[in-house]
Amino acid sequence: MSFLDDVTWLHGFSDVGLMYSGKRQGDGKKRKGFAVGALDFYLTPQLGNNVKSLVELIFEVNDEGETMAELERLQIGYAFGDYLAVWGGRYHTPLGYWNTAFHHGKQIQTTALRPKFLDFEEDNGVIPTHTVGLLGSGAVRLAGGKLNYDLFIGNGPKIEDSGDNGRLNPNTFSDDNHDLTVGLNLGYDFSGALEGLRIGVHGLHGEVDSYDKQEMRLSRTDLNLLGGYGVYAADDWEIIGEFYQLLNRDRSGNSGTHSSALGFIQVGRLFDRCMPYTRFEFASLDMGDKYVSSLKDGYSYRRALAGIRFELTPKTALKLEGNHTRTLNRYRDDYYEFISQFAIRF
User: What is the pLDDT of residues 17-31, one digit of tens each?
Assistant: First the structure.
């Protein structure tokens, strides 16, 4: 037995970049200039043959230029085998493919930006990307491939400062309404001629309350999410598509059920160490849904994005990216953004 067996290695991610955005900010100014991205520390302490843990702590700069620290993930789990591992703590909500494959380290994702509606809570995303609770995951090999699954139960999120500044809070300390969120993600990995292809379905149900600045409850919504996804990563291709359907029911009024749709498709092709890519994403949101209208970025939009990624070394990537975004209701805007991003891992 080596003393190195008890060593927990510190790994991390970081990025810096240059950005121009034509999007109008709250004070009417456009964003442009150099910026420091996130400093992400990532540890996976091994506590025995079956007991595992994962810690992710991130430092990033907010819109006011202040450095903020947040514990993004803290998971402790027990692995019974490949067929089942049970985790407790704060984890990425296992919806679709993107939110579990790509965490806060920008170097591991092809693009500079996540799909807008899948932004993390602190960045005004409209889907719960973190959950605090229990997560069971595993895989079962079948004759034609492998079935992967995630089952989870945890604190439901709440919406703070409802309205123009509304933001999801995953309730890391306790659940505000004591109504737990439950969900699942099922994916199938093909083998043989279709190796590299995964298709899956996902769903989530929970109850979300929104609050004003004085923490007075304004609304209650049954959050119901269903969807599917597909991924092909082989033969130098990367193709990812995801779809989310919201069927939310108003619990604090009589406006009934509201339907919204969100999704994206991204295609990239690797040539040696260079990958050009493109992505189209959209959100068609029902503004009568109090869950949607309570969020700052709860509006419909269309975004077309294209870029190129250079793999300078296995641990560094340079990305040049541009997008055109059009918002369709609530906040009407039509703007371009151009981003260069240098991302590393260590």
Answer: 999 998 875 444 567
Contact between 90 and 130 under an 8 Å Cβ cutoff? The reply is yes
Least confident of 3-17, 196-210, 221-235, 322-336: 3-17
Domain residue ranges in the chain: 73-345
State the CB neighbour count (10 A cutoff) for residue 176: 19
Give residues with Cβ within 8 angstroms of 279, minimum separation 6: 111, 115, 264, 265, 266, 267, 303, 304, 305, 306
Other beta carbons within 10 Å of 156:
25
| Class in CATH terms, 73-345 | mainly beta
Neighbours of 247 (CB within 10 A): 15
Q: How many C-beta atoms lie closer than 10 Å to residue 280's C-beta?
A: 16
Instruction: Give the pLDDT band of residue 2 (cuts 50, 70, 90).
Output: low
* Kind plus residue range of the DSSP H or E element containing 183: strand 181-190
